[in-house]
Amino acid sequence: MKGRNMTRWRDPAKDPRQEPKSNLITAEGAARLRGILDHLSRVKRPALSTKVGEAAALGDRSENADYTYNKKELNRVIARIRYLTKRLDELQVVDRLPADTGKVYFGAFVTLEDDDGEETRIRIVGHDETDTTKRWISVDAPLAKVLLGKALDDEVTVAAPGGETTYIITEIDYRDPQDGSSE
């Protein structure tokens, strides 16, 4: 029997989607999520509701592509609002610097140097804030797990798809959540 909600069975012990996500988020990340929720609730949802109402007033809904599209989009926005509301309730906002800023903790900007001498600057953030273009990685990522608690000039080795990679920590700094500047 095929149904639209049927998926293949996955062993929960081996399914990477089942790994628990940390509930940490930076203050600016939480503000960004609240902004998205506010925009969806106050702007997008009412606009889509109006479009659905106008399309429904045109008559036969079974062959009304405008009604069908806007109704699906409205349902998607409502689901996103529901998810963001629930997720924001679960999140723990980290809005202060760690006691020891000489070590790598959540929210740190870390500069790493590999064996070839190439430097990479990353930031350790919450799962909801990851951004590959900015090189912000999740605190749950293998590299972040290896870096947590390490100090300047420490050597870390992480398993990557191309094999193990060794890095040396060359810089650690934090952005002060109160004023937005780096320490």
Oligomeric category:
single chain
Low-confidence stretches: none
Percentage of β-strand residues: 15-25%
Which outline best applies?
elongated
Total strand segments: 7
Can you give the mean pLDDT? 86
Order of helices and strands: EHHEEEEHEE
What structural class do helix, strand and pairing data support?
Answer: alpha/beta
Question: End-to-end distance, in Å?
Answer: 59 Å
Tally of contiguous helical segments: 3
From the alpha carbons, calculate the radius of gyration and give it in angstroms: 22 Å
Largest sheet: 5 strands, mixed
Write a compact overview of the structure shown:
The chain has 183 residues and is α/β, with parallel strands linked by helices. The chain is built from three helices and seven strands; from the N terminus they run βααββββαββ.
Q: Strands, helices and their partners?
A:
Blueprint: E1 24-26, H1 27-56, H2 65-90, E2 92-94, E3 108-114, E4 119-125, E5 136-138, H3 142-147, E6 155-160, E7 163-174
Parallel strand pairs: 1-2, 4-5
Antiparallel strand pairs: 3-4, 3-7, 6-7
Helix pairs in contact: 1-2
Keywords:
183 residues, five-stranded mixed β-sheet, 3 helices, 22% strand
Notes on the structure:
The longest helix has 30 residues, at 27-56. The protein has helices spanning 27-56, 65-90, 142-147; strands at 24-26, 92-94, 108-114, 119-125, 136-138, 155-160, 163-174. The protein is an alpha/beta fold. Strand 3 and strand 4 (119-125) form a beta hairpin. The strands form 2 sheets. A 5-stranded mixed sheet has the order 5-4-3-7-6. The chain has a two-stranded parallel ribbon with strand order 1-2. The termini are far apart. Helix 1 runs antiparallel to helix 2 (65-90).
